[in-house]
Amino acid sequence: MHKFSVAPMMDWTDRHCRYFHRLLSKETQLWSEMVTTKAILNGDKNRLLDFDAAEHPLVLQLGGSESDEMAQCAKIAQNWGYDEVNINVGCPSDRVQSGSFGACLMQTPEVVAQCVDAMRQASDISVSVKSRIGVDDMESYKELSNFVMQVENAGCDVFVIHARKAWLKGLSPKENRTVPSLNYEWVYRIKKDFPHLAIAINGGIMSVDEATVHLQSVDSVMLGRVAYHQPYLLSEVDNKIYHKILDAPSREQVLLDFIEYIKKQNDQGVPIRSMTRHILGLYHAQPSAKKFRQLLSGKVVELKHLYQWLDFTG
């Protein structure tokens, strides 16, 4: 299990975002946005699944609860070249609930177990589960432990646990990311009670230094929105988490490398703004941060603007 990862985030962690993040850290495990099984089976697989080889190690997160569909998608993920496939058992949105997957699956661990078993039989790819510590009326550690035990018995040995409950009624998806209280101790306890499992912790972690503290109690740490809005913090990961004695790339070098990527993608018809939207936070907390955001928020964004920025900063 990789010690550090960037969370799957809908509408954010697309292939362009992931390539950008890879320029900042060579070791961080990257995750796709959640993709539903039905979208993969019935939709444009190239658009949904393609990635650049530089993105490895890379996880495909699936949304679904039909074991046969999950199995088919696990096989597809393996053939597509993903390193791991993950079952979403943590998203609390209405769209996910109506599809009978996401956080509501915590109430039916037997369904998750069936999916894990089917996926493992259909492919050789690693299968993991990303969950909450509970949902709605699940109030006890025993219920969380029972969920992990049932899913483990089906063959899952990697769990990523967001250390908050999810309230499917009464809270919006946004509120579910902040309102339920954090309970890191339960995640630590899962690792103690299931020492043979690989356990990752997620939720409310705001820096790489905080991540190193959690790594004293669990195997891996996942950062979400802070890694998106303050992406340059990822430049600390290879040194502080993986102990690689490397100089962090400068913001300007990262931008220069990403410009080369933008050129190639734009030649294939990808709009520049669909890529530059992911780098708005590159200069977070720097004196020039506002000017950089303004540059990328204009009516027209062209490569020449980025080269002008490099001239300005250089």
UniProtKB/TrEMBL annotation:
Lineage, top ranks: Bacteria, Pseudomonadati, Pseudomonadota, Gammaproteobacteria, sulfur-oxidizing symbionts
Essential cofactor(s): FMN
Domain of life: Bacteria
PROSITE patterns per UniProt: UPF0034
Protein name per UniProt: tRNA-dihydrouridine(20/20a) synthase
GO molecular function, one term: FMN binding
Function: Catalyzes the synthesis of 5,6-dihydrouridine (D), a modified base found in the D-loop of most tRNAs, via the reduction of the C5-C6 double bond in target uridines. Specifically modifies U20 and U20a in tRNAs.
Family per record: Belongs to the Dus family. DusA subfamily.
Ranges of residues in domain DUS-like FMN-binding: 6-297
Site-annotated residues for Interacts with tRNA: N88, K174, R177, R293
